[in-house]
Design a protein that fits this description.
With 573 residues, the chain is mainly β. The chain folds into five domains: 2-132, Immunoglobulin-like; 139-228, Immunoglobulin-like (Sandwich); 236-322, Immunoglobulin-like, CATH 2.60.40; 326-451, Immunoglobulin-like; 455-567, Immunoglobulins (Immunoglobulin-like, Sandwich), CATH 2.60.40. Strands 12, 13, 14, 15, 16, 17, 18, 19 and 20 form a nine-stranded mixed β-sheet that branches. Strands 2, 5, 6, 8, 10 and 11 form a six-stranded mixed β-sheet that branches. Strands 1, 3, 4, 7 and 9 form a five-stranded antiparallel β-sheet that branches.
Length: 573
């Protein structure tokens, strides 16, 4: 052995060795590349290791040798070349690391061990090298197509795709981090497709070798470095909806959904069953603008897909959607107990409002007054008898912001009754407030008798076919005892004919289905109030009375969709 020979030749040198800094725990040997050809010079690096770190203050000498078998017998110092004839001296300037460029060469092929130790062999280190019989220039090229260098892999197995056109049907080895992890065979075109397990979290490198029948390396790829980051099973990171408050039917909401970067597709699922695939704006962010088409609480769930996981998330968001509020039927009546006061009430369609506003004034286009209330009715005082006023009801939020559709502007004339006279005070518009005695603070006027006078606004008039009969149907008015119906062929009602009277708000009228052209008639409805007075509710309303079969919408152009019933009651003295 060369070590024995060098011990004899250099005994004086070794006897003078001083380990002022102490011994390392071991030596780490790195040969680059670890596989090379016969007579190819390669780099070798020696590191002194103490407590798993480079021992930067190490000063000392060691012995470097190569062991192994070639051609059936152990190699000797004539079969290889090592730096400094194997006597490695490390000084303080080396900082525990000594590199020899092109310092190692072997002239025989095989698998060998490179050893580094101090004289008493109490501290050592080694690595394995492979020396091929053929020169590296004679090896065929192998290209790793997948994975690409520098990419991230999230799966626990790595897909391998390699190309070696000059090595068809060749034996191939796949190395992961310098360890042979799998063997396979290239196809007739030199392509290798496979997958390997055993990835470690963080940086990895893969390499492919082609091996001859004799066990020599005849093809070699470069090492491809990649990163393995196990995919998280939590694909959902967060969601935002804009807007997300005071939502109404038909509103558009923009959803932004944050996900794991590996999510490839995402969709939202509403509790009503609607599904909305999301658009991928970038890695980890999906967006969608959705029109809200249902009312109430919408529970939003989601589904996410990645290359290896498909996962559902239930109820990640709740949206409360209200119908578009509309003020429906409005009623205005004189108050039966308080002079100069009006009772107003209304119905709200499509939900409820936190507050309501009553706009009022003495002209339809100049509603300068405003009263707010939390209920769907109010009592206003301070009105002048015999004067016309105008009102409009609207829903408002707690911040006094109008919402939904307001009512139409409604007019009402304060009737003149016995014991009253036109007042000169301006409209106060204040809510009527009673004191503890039950008296009214304003206005101070003689008590007016109870009046049947009323106004009904926004009544929807429709027709109904019951059997073979046709009816004009409407909501009943208050304080009306019965209705009288008149018909004419002319709009001026010059030849009106009394058809009959009814106590219910429904009247059957004749309809001719045999005529060949559309025909119309004009109807006037007269109400008989509970006090015996007569009031005309509608005058000369044009109605189609033939020949259409479908009479569900007999009122043309919705002329009677909203009919105002105004009843004026008066006394004769």
């Amino acid at each position: 052995m060369k070590k024995s020979l060098l011990l004899l030749l250099g005994g004086m040198v070794f006897s003078a060795q001083v380990f002022a800094s102490g011994d390392p725990d071991s030596f780490q040997i790195e040969v680059n590349p670890p596989t090379f050809a016969v007579n190819q010079s390669v780099d070798i690096t020696i590191k002194a290791i103490k407590n798993n770190q480079v021992m930067k203050n190490y000063v000392g000498q060691g012995f470097l040798e190569i062991n192994g078998v070639a051609d059936g017998k152990e190699i000797n110092f004539k079969d290889y070349t090592v730096p400094s004839d194997g006597i490695i001296e490390m000084s303080a300037s080396d900082q525990g690391v000594k590199t020899f460029s092109k310092g190692l060469r072997l002239n025989k092929p095989g698998n060998f061990t490179v050893n580094m130790s101090i004289l008493n062999d109490t501290v050592s280190g080694s690595t394995t090298i492979i020396v091929n019989g053929a020169s590296k220039t004679d090896q065929k090229g192998i290209t790793i197509m997948e994975p690409a260098a520098g990419t991230k892999n999230n799966k626990s197995v790595l897909d391998i795709l390699a190309s070696a056109p000059e090595l068809p049907n060749a034996r191939m080895q796949i190395l992961l981090n310098d360890l042979v992890i799998k063997e396979g065979t290239s196809d007739a075109n030199g392509m290798l497709t496979d997958s390997i397990p055993g990835l470690k979290v963080g940086t990895n490198y893969v390499q492919v070798k082609a091996i001859s029948v004799a066990g020599e390396v005849v093809g070699l790829s470069d090492k491809v470095i990649f990163t393995y980051e196990p995919q998280s099973t939590d694909l959902f990171k967060g969601i935002s909806a804009t807007p997300n408050q005071n939502l109404k039917l038909g509103d558009k909401v923009r959803f932004e959904v944050m996900t794991d970067d590996n999510v490839s597709s995402a969709k939202l699922i509403f509790s009503g069953g609607q599904e909305y695939p999301l658009d991928k704006e970038k890695s980890g962010l999906f967006v969608k603008e959705v029109s809200l088409m249902q009312t109430g609480d919408i529970l939003v769930s989601a589904n996410f897909s990645s290359p290896s996981i498909n996962k559902d998330y239930d109820q990640i968001l709740t949206l409360n959607v209200k119908d578009n509020l509309k003020i429906g039927e409005v009623k205005i009546m004189t108050h039966p107990d308080f002079p100069g006061a009006l009772q107003l009430s209304w119905e709200t369609l499509g939900g409820t409002s936190e507050k309501y506003g009553i706009k009022y004034g003495i002209a339809a286009d100049a509603l300068s007054g405003l009263v707010l209330t939390t209920g769907d009715s109010a009592i206003l005082s301070g009105f002048t008898y015999g004067k016309e006023y105008f009102f409009q009801i609207l829903a408002v939020t707690n911040d006094n912001i109008p919402e939904g559709l307001a009512s139409e502007v409604i007019s009402f004339v304060m009737p003149v009754a016995t014991g009253t006279e036109p007042k000169k005070e301006a409209l106060s518009g204040s809510l009527l407030v009673e004191d503890q005695t039950g008296a009214v603070s304003e206005p101070e006027m003689p008590a007016a008798p109870k009046l049947p006078t009323c106004i009904i606004k926004n009544i929807k008039v429709t027709t109904e076919k019951i059997g073979n009969k046709y009816y004009l149907v409407r909501k009943p008015g208050e304080n009306i005892q019965k209705y009288r119906i008149y018909r004419s062929d002319f709009a001026d009602m010059s030849d009106k004919t009394f058809l009959g009277e009814t106590e219910i708000p429904r009247f059957e009228y004749p309809f001719d289905k045999t005529v060949e052209e559309d025909i119309y008639a004009y109807y006037t409805v007269e109400a008989i109030c509970t006090d015996g007075e007569k009031v005309e509710l509608t005058h000369a309303k044009k109605v189609q009375v033939g020949p259409l079969e479908d009479m569900l919408l007999i009122l043309a152009a919705t002329a009677l969709l909203y009919l105002i019933y105004r009843v004026y009651t008066y006394r004769t003295y």
